[in-house]
Design a protein that fits this description.
alpha/beta, globular, 11 helices, about 45% helix, 2 domains, about 15% strand, TIM Barrel
Amino acid sequence: MAFCAWQPRNASSSRDHELVDLHCHSTLSDGTLSVREMIETASRRKLSALAITDHDNIDAYDVGSKYARELGLDLVPGVEISSYEDSSDVHILGYFFDPTNLVLNQTLDRIKRRRVLRAKAMVRKLNKLGMEIRLERVLSYVQGGTVGRPHIARALLEEEFVSSFQEAFEKWLSPGKPAYVDSEGLTPTQAVALIRNAGGVAVMAHPHHTNRDDLIPKLVEAGLAGIELHCWKMTQSASRRYQDIARKHGLVCTGGSDSHGEKPGIPGIGSVRVSRAVLDKLLEARDRHFAEF
């Protein structure tokens, strides 16, 4: 098991009044801003730390860590791993892992290849339905990262087969729709173990969207350290429910914008207020695990 030696620029002060964003996506997955543009945006908005959590891709940290240091921003190693249980799509966020961990990198490479095969199958279905788009065009949007359904939706939109991203998903790309293809990959428990074994801490992403609260006790047993509480469009009743769950299981309440770009109508970097104290609590959870190991 590897231990990531990541530490903040100023470990002697928690700076609780400062803000962070621990969930956002770059062009290395399905975001519209490059890693460099995201770091510049976070710095301009006076954030203290940023975690770029691309889908099944950890390259953002290597690409951006030097530039973030130059701008005085703490860039946290981050990832959002896709996992599946009983046809449910469960996303597990990881932080502070060792970016050079061999098993982590090999596993994400396998997932990346599966994503390409899935995209190919969905494009083939769309072609049979009379929507002629090419896989090469879909992959051209990826910029070396991981392909996903938003890239297919973009191709449909640019070819004018749909009038919006929402229509692409509602009519063709969502579960149960004509062009949807089931995913293959890790279970949530395996995703948690992958992050922990790479020296990181695991957090359940946007639980109000996942709607699989029944999985939480099993994930806690596997080593889940946190749950996203500060999320875009989380209702007050859902917030109270997940606060109670977090207290019951000793989980850190984390959060972030889940930003995929800076367009009107979608959350931008830093749009969900998350205290620096959350980052410190995650670090404490990581260090406590390794002290006990």
